[in-house]
Amino acid sequence: MVDFVRRPRHLIIGAIALVLIAGLGAAWWFESRAPASDYAFKVMRGDRVLASYDVAQVKAIGSKQIMLQGKVQEGASLLAVLEHAGAGTFTTVTIVGANVSTGKADQIVLAACDIGPDTVLDPAPKRLTVKIAGPKIPRNSRIRDITEIVVK
Amino acid sequence: MTVIALVGVMILLGKTVLRMPIHVPGHSGVLWIAALIIGCGVVRRRGSATLMALVGGVLVALVQPSSAGFLFAVAKYVVPGIVLDLVAPLFGGRLDGIAPAIFAGAAAHASKGVVDLLQGLVTGIPVSMLAVGLTATTAFNIAFGALGGLIGAIVLRTLIRARIPQLADLETASEEAP
Fold it and tell me: What ipTM does this complex have?
């Protein structure tokens, strides 16, 4: 009698387990078949491209952690990346990409005084792109999926 | 209704305040899935998990606005609540059992990953970006959902043994069972 009552429960658990395993298998299949990301952003002075970086190259430049609005942002300092690209001197920097809040194409212009050692290019692990974050950049003005960094 | 509101707040706290310092996707699900399991086990009405998840999801979306947009931010909680409402009756509404709670929690939290994927597709994120770490994220969602289910079941069992009025019939049922 107990076995008869238990069996449906075991079948249900087995069915759920199968669904979860199938879901995991589907995720693995999708990930293995997806095209490799060709994301990279350009550092430019005017119309001249100084350098191009993908996420791995940005990580290789360096990494520091900062705390902003209770969340950890971690990545290479923007100043270090610009220095690496040969754009260490500038008066303004325009970051082109997508707005973090709306997801729409957007850009932000930062004066030299707005950029410090705590302004970082934070790689987003899920998106394989970078976003800009810093103490003088309001959260809803942050730019993600950066495509260009233009210095003047 | 008190339990529903309470669980909604617990979901908010689990997502915003009681954060664990581990940088692994889906870890916050341990707490809010446990809260849903507990609430589902206490209320035991059809649709209760969905309602609790809706309350919690709206609170989280308001307190912690996400780039995903309000709708998807709420859906990430409502869909697991719906899954829990579909799975719980299969076990007679008894989520104080360890195995049922583990698998119900795992299934519920795994469904959140589906919402994340849909959100990415709708917002036009390239497939190559969506696929990055998908297997690991899915595995973590399942694992943390299962852990949340386990914690929820243990708390429910403790509440049953503590003889709270809402669970008095469950205590009687467990005493009568061979």
Answer: 0.80
